[in-house]
Structure formats: C-alpha cells, structure tokens
Fold this protein.
Amino acid sequence: MARLLLFGPAREAAGVSQTFLPGRHVSDVVAAAEECFGADFSRIVTVSRIWVNGDDAGPDTLVNDSDEIAVIPPVSGG
Amino acid sequence: MTHPPLAPPDVGDWIGVSDQALPVDEAWKWASLAHCGGIVTFCGLVRDHSEHRPGVTSLEYEAYLEYVVPRLTEVATQARERWSDLGRLVLLHRVGMLSVGDVAVVVTASTPHRAESFETARFCIDTLKHTLPIWKHETWEGGSEWSACAHDASPFDGSVPPVQQPTKTS
C-alpha cells in the first residue's frame, strides 16, 4: 500500500492528511482516493499535481509501498 | 510544532522554513560583504485584504515541509547560475498562523552593483511563489477559505514565471 499525503484544500476535502491505498500506478492510487473521499476531493484533484517522492509524476508512474505520493493543489506561498 | 530559530549557515546560502518570526534584520546584516555594494531585501507581509476578501485578520500557511527547503535550494541554484557575482542569498519562509503585518517570506540578495540585487530578489520571490509546496488559508471578516490566488505547482525548469498583475479591489 502506497502512502498518500494530502495538503491544503485536498486535505480539507478528504478530512485526513494521509492515507494508505493500493495501486500499481499513480492513477490507481488517485482513483482509490477519489472513491474514498468523494466529489469535492475529485474536483481538487483535477487541478492538482501529483508528486511521487517530491517529483512531478504522471498517471502511468509506477509506485510501490515505499513511495510517498502527494496531492499538490495549486500553491500559494509567498 | 515549534521550529528552532533560523540561523545563518557557515557556508552557502541561508535557506530555511520556520513557524517562528523570520530574522529580517539578521538576514541583511549577514548578507553584507565587503565587495557587495548593494543589498536588496524583499519581505512579503500579511496584508489586511485579498481579492474580494476585505478585512483579512490572519493567514495560516500549510506546507509539505519535507520539500520546502529542497525547492528553495533549487531557486538559489538557479539564481547563482544567472548572476555569477551574487554575494550572499537568503531565502526564508514562514509557516503556521500569522497575523496582519507579520513577515511571511524574506528574500535578501547582495551583489557588487545594485541592478543585480534587485533582479536577483525579484527572480527569487517570483519563482518561489510558483514552486514551493505551501498553501495559504485566509480568515477574513466574511469567512475563511484557501487563497484564491494560487498557482499551478509547475515543475522547476529555471524559467522565470510570469508576473501576476494585481487585481484592483475596492
């Protein structure tokens, strides 16, 4: 099970800051998260980046149990 | 969580993130070098309003802390590639709960001549706003919500992000 971290509006929509979900690819893990957390979360995912271990990742990126996947909504630092 | 006070490094750039007040005065003093005739410090402060949100009273910055310093380091690396005579560089960001007037971000650059100080500071603040995994939650007189002025966290490619023109609010 990969570790999925959620930040900002994604965390708020999900109600949790992290979870563990199954999946061989990023798309599997994100789909499982959308199934868990519902429509508001899905809307945020559509405008978010997905990082794997700090790097931008695509839906086909392979993941394993040691990977840290993160939903990165549009950022607003500074 | 309480972070230890930020302190300048013995070597290299001063890069950090903290939930404590940022050391603005210490930053520009540390950046002072004998061969640098110009120092520019940019401070980003919590403002009392944002777009369509009058009466902002506080902000809370949430961060993917593990990757804030690495992203700031990438910004510093890019700045040094662009301005080879850059003296010292400070990039600090605050997280946690802030009030109006608090300093949220500090960029300080020292260079032999003034033009490069301004250019470096401008490049760094514009770039870090687009690349740091940080999210701003605003509380204003009408409610509480995530910042409406957010940017897609594009992969860092060294290009200068477009400068967002402010929207005039009443």
User: Anything to note?
Assistant: Strands of chain A lie at 2-6, 18-21, 49-52, 55-57, 68-72. Helices of chain A lie at 8-14, 26-37, 39-46. Chain A has a mean pLDDT of 97. Chain A has one domain: 2-72.
